[in-house]
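Changelog-linked ticket: 2-phosphoglycolic acid example.
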Amino acid sequence: MKNVPHPLIIGNWKMNPQSVSLSTKLAKDIKTYLTKKYSAEIVIAPPSIYLEGVKKIANGTRLFKIGAQNVHSEKLGAYTGEISLPMLRDVGVTYVILGHSERREMGETDLHINHKIHATLKAGIVPILCIGEKIRDDGGSHFTHIEQQMRNGLKDISRAKLENVVIAYEPVWAIGTGNNASPEDIHEMCLFIEKVLSDMYGRNYASKVRIIYGGSVSEKNAKDIFTRAPIDGFLVGGASLHPREFVHIIKAVST
Ligand code: PGA
């Protein structure tokens, strides 16, 4: 783990749950289980339509922040179905997940993601750049793939802005499968990501970037992964929909 103040835990609710009242219940239940202030920085990323409600539940407690699962790079205009950074900022969003593999699958390219990262940083919101290989082979093509996603996604991002970027290593084969990457594989990939960042920005700048892991993180594997791989936190999908389990994961990384 790097010299960062607190581990970062993000709950990515994806397109869940199915109603406003269920989203309110979920956020309230998480709050109930968070019986004290943990040393982790906690972010909940619900569907955008629930952001305001979840924020209201968080308000006053400072137990968790809210994040978005995507954003458009333009500030306003004729972009049917999209949501802008000023809108997100207005409801109190401080983190945005970008380039999630499920969005890449829908056609989002490295170029889109790069534009979104530039715009997000400019808006003073923290982008979480998701990268991850679909498959691994003995030839190590996953490293080439990761490097490409990093170089394209971070194109023209300045050294000064880099430390506000979070990188989420999420091997696609591990997402939602119950088949997490091993701590050894995550360790190796973290070192590789740091090396690419060092090549791009120099060691001092690279060492400030938070790297988190996502892909079937659960209450069963969180502690083991966190203690054995040099990561700064987790991006949690399925398990973030189960309040007790999500809080267990938070406890696993908290001192
Ligand atoms: P998962 O999802 O924890 O359900 O594997 C992680 C993610 O997609 O961010």
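Closing comment: Example verified and attached. The chain has eleven helices and eight strands. The CA atoms of residues 24 and 153 lie 34 Å apart.
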